[in-house]
Every structure is written in C-alpha cells, then in structure tokens.
Amino acid sequence: MTAPTVDVHAHVLLPEVDRLVAGVEGHAAARELDARRNGPEALSVSGAMVRDRLRLLTDVVHRLAAMDAAGVDVQLVSPSPSHYHYWAGPELARAVWETANTSTAEHCARAPGRLRGLGLVPLQHPDQAVQALDHALGAGLAGVEISSHAPGRELSDPAYEPFWERAAETGAIVFLHPFGCTLDERLDRWYLSNSVGQPTENAVALSHLVFSGVLDRHPRLRVVAAHGGGYLPTHIGRADHAWHARPDAQGCARPPSHYLRHNLYFDSLVHDAGVLRELVRVAGPDRVLLGSDFPFDMGADDPVAALRASALSDSDFHAIRGGTAAALLNLEENR
Fold first, then answer.
1. Statement: residue 333 has pLDDT above 60
2. Of 4, 141, 186, 255, whose Cβ has the fewest other Cβ atoms within 10 Å?
3. Of 167, 103, 164, 85, nearest to 134 (Cα)?
4. CA–CA separation, 272 vs 263, rounded Å?
5. What residues contact 271, with CB distance under 8 A and at least 6 apart?
6. pTM of whole model > 0.85?
7. Which residues is 265 bridged to in the sheet?
8. Which residues lie below 8 Å from residue 164, measured CB to CB, with a gap of 6+?
9. How far is CA 134 from CA 83, 111, 143, 268, 309, in A?
10. In Å, how far from its chain's centre is CA 323?
C-alpha cells in the first residue's frame, strides 16, 4: 500500500466573501494599504494572473483536472489569504469566517475523496477564535488558516492562548500563511512584497511562537508553515546562538531548533532543491509536507517533480510526497 500524493498548500477563491466586504467601511483603506505595500506594477500583474486562473480557483472540475495532470491525489484547500480581512469589526468578521468556512466546505464536498479544507479565524478578534475554529471543524474542515499577525497583535499575544489550547485539544491543523508584510513601501517594487515579504513574515511569526513558549505550553499543536517556514529554518543557527548567548532570548524551554523537529511542520515550497534538502536536514523528513500554492504563479506547477529534484532518499521522498500528510489528515492509505 502506498500513501496518496497530498498537496497541503492549495487555495480557493470565495466570491461569497468578496460580496460581504464590498463597499463596507474599512475595505477601501485596506485595499489602499495593500496597494502601497505591493506597488502598482505588482497589482496589475497579479490581477491579470488571478483572472487567468479563476476557474482553477473556483471550479472543482478544473481543479481536479489540474491535480490529475500534476499527479496529485488530494489537496488541502485553504481560502485565498486575500479573504482574511483582519480590518473587519466583530459583526463583519463573524460573517466572513462563517461564510468562508461554509463555502470552503461546500467546495471540498464536491470531491470528498480528493479535497480536504481549512477555514478561517479572525485574528483581530481573539475572543471569536475558538468559536471560529469549532465552526470550521463542525463543517468538516481539517482546521484553519491564519496569517502571520493581526493589526497590533503578534502570534505570541496571550489573548490567543485559548485558541492554541483548543487547536491542540482538537488536533486541528493550523496553516500559517502570511498575507502582506509590515515592511510596507520598502518592498513596493519588483514584487519584493512577496519574494522577500512572505518568507520574512513566516520567520517572524514562527519565531514568536517558538520564543514566547507557545509550543512549550501546547506541544500537541499541529502548525504547518507555508513557504518552507521562510527564512527561519535556513538561519536557525543564529536563533540557537541567541538562545544560548543571551538571557533575554530564552523565552522558550529549549533551543529554537528543537521546535523545528518536534512541534512544527513545513511545506516544501522553497523553489530550490538545495534549500529543500536543508529544510529536511534541520526539520527532518517527517516534518516536511508537499506544497504547491496551487494555482498561483508563485507556486509550483509540478510539486512532485520539484520534490524529486531534491534527490532525497526514497523513504524521505515518499514521506514528504504524502505519507506524513496522509497521517495528519487521517486519509486511507489505499484508496
């Protein structure tokens, strides 16, 4: 028996959520901030790219055909990060996560053997986070997707403790996928907002989880970091050195590298065979999962080929291709 090939990083676009926020006070300001962070050229290119891939983002038949062409058996589908809307007030935020959870579940239900889903929680309203997670799980989703921070709150904020506790208790997957970078206009050219901003945000968010002791307090958390965890895994030696050298860096019980191998998971989307081998070296093959960022242009059209190019051992290749993810998602090994 062989495990299915599982892509844990794939997205769905939800027009229902877009209709909820259209014209609402605060939406225009959020769009203006996004425009400043990305720059006009990036917005133009991204708009055309999304339009070209709209059917892949919304239509299950086209999604399954693309999966078949790439040799992917199962996708873990999460809402486009553009649906976070962390600017929204309490009532609108509730409508956003309820709609996103329900709509993602309905999308995945059209191909139940091939698609599993993730919902959303409103990081800007920690008091709703547990309820949003329970709603997602109740809809049949495998967990939730979150960004690297909310306005004025890092993931180390004590207000999130009930959320982490509930996620650990339920075994929910928490998919950490940044949207936007607080370096703002410094990255507004050459698509630096994504190529530099996303891995930066990943590293900062993961460092908050590690150094604050969140993973010590909730060791059963199942956090999956997009984009290979950004810069943190390849620079984990510097984090370890700080932990050993400075008392103010010892917020966690063990050196930071410990948590990469025991508490966190990472997708394989690093765009470089050598970097992927390094990620496997520091985190272990049982902590790396296949990821493509389907169907966006910053993803991998053939994630299995990208994994194969890293020249890992057969056992490591198959664990990353789907063995570990199948266990996380409780998939049948012989479908």
1. no
2. 186
3. 167
4. 24
5. 300, 306
6. yes
7. 224
8. 214, 217, 218, 221
9. 19, 23, 9, 28, 39
10. 19
Question: 252 near 259, Cβ under 8 Å?
Answer: yes
User: What six digits make up the tokens of 138?
Assistant: 């109740």
Give residues with Cβ within 8 angstroms of 86, minimum separation 6. 122, 123, 124, 147, 150, 151
Tell me how crowded residue 209 is: count the other CB atoms within 10 A of its CB.
Answer: 25
Provide the angle, in degrees to the nearest 10, between the axes of the packed helices 126-138 and 90-109: 20
Q: Which residue has the tokens 């028996």?
A: 1
Domains and CATH numbers, the chain: 6-326 (3.20.20.140)
CA–CA distance, 48 with 60 (Å, rounded to integer): 21
Cα gap 289→111, rounded to integer Å: 22
Residues belonging to the chain = 335
Closest CA to 217 of 283, 267, 173, 167: 167
pLDDT in tens, 220-267: 999 999 999 999 999 999 999 999 999 999 999 999 999 999 999 999
Residue 273 burial (C-beta neighbours within 10 Å; 0-12, 13-18, 19+): middle
